[in-house]
Amino acid sequence: MAEQVLQADVLAGVPHGFSTAAAGDMGLRGMAADDAALAPVLVARTRMAGTVLPGARLTGVWQVHGAACVEAGDWGDDARPQADALVTDRPGVLLSILTADCAPVLLADCAAGVVGAAHAGWKGAVGGVVEAVLASMERLGARRGRIAAAIGPTIGQPSYEVDAPFRERFGAGDARFFGPGTQAGHWQFDLPGFVARALAEGGVTQVEVLPYDTYAEEARFFSFRRATHRGEADYGRQMSLIGLPARA
Q1: What DSSP state is assigned to residue 246?
Q2: Is 143 strand, coil or helix?
Q3: How many whole angstroms from its chain centre is CA 138?
Q4: Concatenated DSSP letters for 161-198?
Q5: Domain of 117, in residue numbers
Q6: How many CB atoms lie within 10 A of CB 125?
Q7: SS3 helix, strand, coil % of the chain, rounded to 5?
Q8: pTM of the entire structure?
Q9: For residue 15, is it within any domain?
Q10: How many structural domains is the chain composed of?
Q11: What number of other Cβ atoms are within 10 A of residue 43's Cβ?
Q12: For residue 67, is it within any domain?
């Protein structure tokens, strides 16, 4: 059986997981409440949550490719705030992020009992979503030097060719994240490396980048870019989860 949940060594002992395509499509965006396609998505999400932290309350945000971070609340799925990261210090709460090429980032300060999750596409990464989630964790008592962070399955540099207007959005100091493209005026962008640099500059010394390419590994991951290149109507989403066990 294909592996459904991946974990990071740096978060050992913390309930967390990165889903694969074998776990099912976790995306809810664009689905009406009575859409027949909604049922298997909810089943997949419930199964994934139960695998990571049985009995926990699953919570997420309405992702908008921005840099806002919120503290997890009791909102329903139809009332999710617009944000791209969330944090909590409440046991029994499971934070969730959906991705399909963007970088899912899971973070934990075990000593403080604080966890965070961020959706870091290139827009959010440039806009400061990593700094936002670190600052929010600090407000709950975390210390950056104690935070461990894992970057889950993300589109890899060999699969992420970009053009000159994209490259111009970045500074001269970001040149190392752009390798030669397959044609003139194009580059291969290293999104997970760029996010890892942001974590390091934010004071996180324990960073693990999982070695998976969502675009290239078709049998294992959903990919927005791959679906777009093929002209497919929609694409699946992976879900990344992290939480704190309920107190006895």
Answers
A1: P
A2: coil
A3: 20
A4: EEEHHHHTTS-GGGGGGEEE-SSTTEEEE-HHHHHHHH
A5: 5-243
A6: 25
A7: 30, 25, 45
A8: 0.96
A9: yes
A10: 1
A11: 11
A12: yes
Other CB atoms within 10 A of residue 199 CB: 26
Looking at the domain assignment, is residue 248 inside a domain?
A: no
User: CA-based angle 125:129:135, to the nearest 5?
Assistant: 140
Q: Which element (helix H / strand E) includes 228? A: helix 224-229
pLDDT beyond 80 at 15: yes
φ, ψ at 239 (rounded to 5°) = -120, 135
Condensed to tens digits (0 to 9), the pLDDT of residues 107-152 reads: 999 999 999 999 999 999 999 999 999 999 999 999 999 999 999 9
End-to-end CA distance of the chain: 34
Residue 12, domain member (yes or no): yes
Residue type, 109: D
* 8 A C-beta contact, residue 237 and residue 114: no
Q: CA 172 to CA 214: how far, in whole Å? A: 27
Residue 85 has phi, psi (to 5 degrees) of -160, 155
Residue with tokens 């500074």: 171
Joined together, the tokens standing for residue 239 give 């879900």
Tokens of 37: 């396609």
CATH number, position 225: 3.60.140.10
Of the candidates 75, 190, 91, the residue with the CA atom closest to the CA atom of residue 140? 91
Whether 64 contacts 84, CB under 8 Å: yes
